[in-house]
Amino acid sequence: MISVDHLTKRYGRHIAVDDVSFHCRPGTVTGFLGPNGAGKSTTLRMICGLTPPTAGAATVGGQPYRQLPNPGQEVGVLLDASAQHAGRTGREALTVAADTMGVERDEVTAKLDLVGLDATAARRRVRAYSLGMRQRLGLAHALLGDPRVLILDEPANGLDPEGIFWMRGLLRDFADRGGTVLLSSHLLREVEAVADRLVVIGGGRVVAQGDKDDLLSGAGTRVQARNQQALRRALDSAGLDVVSDTDGGLLVHAEAEAVGQAAADAGVALTELRPADTGGLEQLFLSLTAGGPTTTAEPTTSGEPTAAGEPTREDAR
Ligand SMILES: Nc1ncnc2c1ncn2[C@@H]1O[C@H](COP(=O)(O)OP(=O)(O)OP(=O)(O)O)[C@@H](O)[C@H]1O
């Protein structure tokens, strides 16, 4: 179980992540979806204790990541496949990690096999690896301690279509055996094929979340009011499930009649009430992507640690 509660990260005046909350349950793959700069990596780094939140908290298995006694055996993390020790061979990199984690060395061979790095590849230095091979090595590292939770940032980057298909199968199988997977991507199609649930982030804020099928079917009602906050309060207090909340209105997982009644009961005047279009999520995602990052950030000078297969416990700030 991963719990993210009201996480916020500010860099100076720029809000990279703004009050983000969601939960990932065992047995599910959660796709964390958003265009470049939306705040995905920053959120994942806060979950993994690499970036301190400005506000809010995240736990994995009920504890903050930094308080897990042996994190590698509970959470497999792959945040940046290119940040691996270039001078080591693939096998050496995994062996060092296995020794650090207290994992049997036999597991190194087993995990190399699992991710499709053969003996020749395992003998090559990481600097000679393609990005796809680094992703595979990073995944082997994440799986090394047989964790129950996987947190992966854009793991399909650099993989060829066969590799993407293979990774989907691996993640699906991991979740079907009771594992929890949180998987970020900027491509809807990439997570659509494997995720059970989606959390969509744009400009640092969660703009939609829920079961993938519900979000993609576009089932429900699109509603707008001049006072959208009052409308949101009315729908929440009527117990209606708001699946997305953007400047263009709300998408509610309920019949139009129930939505209209809730608004009327609260005295909120509507400007729009209609059945949602199919492909509502796709439209939402396209509009986020078209807009790009809503704000620009000033880079910080401190630089934070990167996480490849080996999530570091250092913190630069
Ligand atoms: N160390 C930092 N200092 C200042 N701004 C930052 C820092 N790290 C991230 N940001 C800003 O925070 C916002 C969110 O970045 P983040 O990397 O989390 O997005 P993302 O969704 O993972 O996108 P991408 O896939 O492009 O990495 C961006 O505007 C980014 O420029």
Please summarize the sheet with the most strands: 6 strands, mixed
Question: Approximately how much helix is present in the residues?
Answer: 25-40%
Number of DSSP strand runs: 13
Shape: elongated
Which ligands occur here?
adenosine-5'-triphosphate
Give me the secondary-structure category.
alpha/beta
CATH topology of the largest domain: Rossmann fold
Beta-strand content bin: 25-35%
CATH class of the largest domain: Alpha Beta
H/E topology pattern: EEEHEHEHHHHEHEHEEHEHEEHEH
- pLDDT < 50 runs, ≥5 residues: 291-317
Distance linking N and C termini: 27 Å
Q: Helical element count?
A: 12
How many domains? The number is: 3
Proper CATH architecture of the largest domain: 3-Layer(aba) Sandwich
Q: What's the alpha carbon Rg, rounded to whole Å?
A: 21 Å
CATH homologous superfamily label of the largest domain: P-loop containing nucleotide triphosphate hydrolases
Strand order of the biggest β-sheet: 5-6-7-3-8-9
Q: How confident overall, as mean pLDDT?
A: 85
